[in-house]
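Sample 3 of the quickstart, ligand DQA:
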Amino acid sequence: MKKILIINGPNLNLLGKREPEIYGTQSFEDYLNVLQKKYTNIVEISYFQSNIEGEIVTKLQEVGFSDLCGIILNAGAYTHTSVAIADAISAIKVPVVEVHISNVFQREDFRHHSFISPVCSGTIVGFGLNSYNLAVESFIPNNL
Ligand code: DQA
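Result:
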């Protein structure tokens, strides 16, 4: 079975409580349960969250040469600041899809630039938590 890892960066552990008008009212754990059930027997979805930039780099290095078919990364605010995470994505073999819950292009200017977009295989932005579902779909070919 295909395996995917979702990595969430800083403050995404607060989903459901954090600025619900932007990020919604569902916790990531609740959403992940539904997602994992939806893809039972199709894709095995595991999850890692960290508020610490270096831990995200270390996780990318750890899994980046494994049998994972893909990584779904919401780097949170590090998207807009982290050369280290961009370098880690460039260094590894497993493809990374960048996701954002909110439409960052409708928000402050500093959210319009992503250090990681150029080194990711694709980017999904602005579909709420469904952005993750769409990213999972991107790893399932011929799924029409
Ligand atoms: C975010 C957008 C980022 O600008 C922000 O810092 C986040 C969440 C999103 O999923 O919409 O923490 O990545």
